Structure of Coenzyme Q-binding protein COQ10 START domain-containing protein:
Amino acid sequence: MSIRAQEHQNLEDGKTEELIGDDGVLIEVKKLEKSSRRIRSKIGMEASLDSVWSVLTDYEKLSDFIPGLVVSELVEKEGNRVRLFQMGQQNLALGLKFNAKAVLDCFEKELEILPYGRRREIDFKMVEGDFQLFEGKWSIEQLDKGIHGEALDLQFNDFPTTLTYTVEVKPKMWLPVRLVEGRLCKEIKTNLMSVRDAAQKVIEGVIHDL
């Protein structure tokens, strides 16, 4: 992986670190205060906005293909609000496991028509769980043919659709923020690639059925 900017532990308040891997995932980490981080990640894909949306909103099947997500349960749905219970798990050294649980309220936004394409988003906020703060959004953008995306993300210009995941996180007092930040970045990258692969399989399945 090529890395630009500083190491995580040297981040100063308000500073942003940008990580771009050979796997095509962009990750930016911004230190908001001593124990808070904003993580923005983005990936390009050969899939339609509708395909990505169908994958993201099939909530109870997310744990079928996202490796670190062991439980994704739909608690209730009312209008555009969805309440989920999710539990993630990661393997640590010596056979130990790290678990994180959260009850999330997700808000499915309406489709936006943009000058250069279409966008649809899901806002989420933790209402109960293992963090002091955990909130953000999923954002899917599909560009019209021949249109280029944001100038700051030129590496995604060859893809018709991009998926962006942004989260602000503040761990419990007893959890080191550097540890949480590092594990979240790794998990987010895996999640984005898993959603991309699932969405592209939706396209392949449609073509196969024609």
